[in-house]
Design a protein that fits this description.
about 190 residues, alpha+beta, M1 Pyruvate Kinase, Domain 3, four-stranded antiparallel sheet, about 40% strand, globular
């Protein structure tokens, strides 16, 4: 396991996407996002505990939507980015972008994250590695702008640029975790050194 560096902050929200929340060219449907108090993460992805049952995230390898594909197994976001999005667009509730883990922290950029993060959970530490920017999509951006249909990329270039570089969130990997690690709201998150 990698070593823990500086404390970034605590997890303030865990959530799963019960179903895919965007349909290319058709729109963004955040009703599929479900906040959970605890989650379990392993190499296959994330599941969240809700109403006495485990709910698969739509990017989990076992989810029937078949969206896993290894492209976006898990994602993280920061409260500082939500403050900036809310100031720009208004009415952006925490979690709207669909990240699995949201951490209380000022805005952090890819260079700040280095090789990854370590979540210190009661069931053990979880390494979230190889962070990369979750590119903002036309569907999410059009939703933030309250547009009736999905805008062309050229019409929302400034907004896509604003959401880019990580403000929309980061994709991380936990494929080294053969055993599930349980996470809860309040768990602390550290940089990897």
């Amino acid at each position: 396991m990698a070593s823990k560096g500086d404390l970034i902050g605590k997890i303030v929200r865990l959530q799963v996407q019960r179903v895919p929340i965007k349909a290319r060219g058709e729109g963004y449907m955040p009703g599929g996002i479900l906040a959970v108090d605890r989650a379990s993460i392993d190499a296959w992805g994330m599941v969240g505990w809700h109403d006495g049952a485990w709910i698969l995230d739509s990017h989990h390898k076992a989810h029937p939507s078949g969206r896993a594909g290894g492209k976006r197994p898990l994602s993280v976001g920061f409260t500082g980015h939500y403050v900036a999005m809310d100031e720009r667009f208004g009415g952006v509730p925490l979690g709207l972008a669909g990240e699995n883990i949201i951490i209380e922290s000022p805005e952090l950029w890819l260079d700040d994250l280095g090789v990854g993060l370590i979540v210190e959970a009661t069931t053990g530490d979880l390494l979230l590695e190889r962070p990369r920017v979750a590119a903002p999509c036309r569907e999410f951006t059009s939703y933030l702008l309250n547009l009736d249909e999905v805008a062309e990329r050229s019409d929302i270039k400034d907004e896509l640029d604003f959401l880019g570089a990580g403000r929309r969130g980061y994709i991380v990997a936990a494929d080294h975790a053969p055993e599930p690690v349980g996470l809860a709201v309040g768990d602390e998150v550290f940089l990897v050194i």
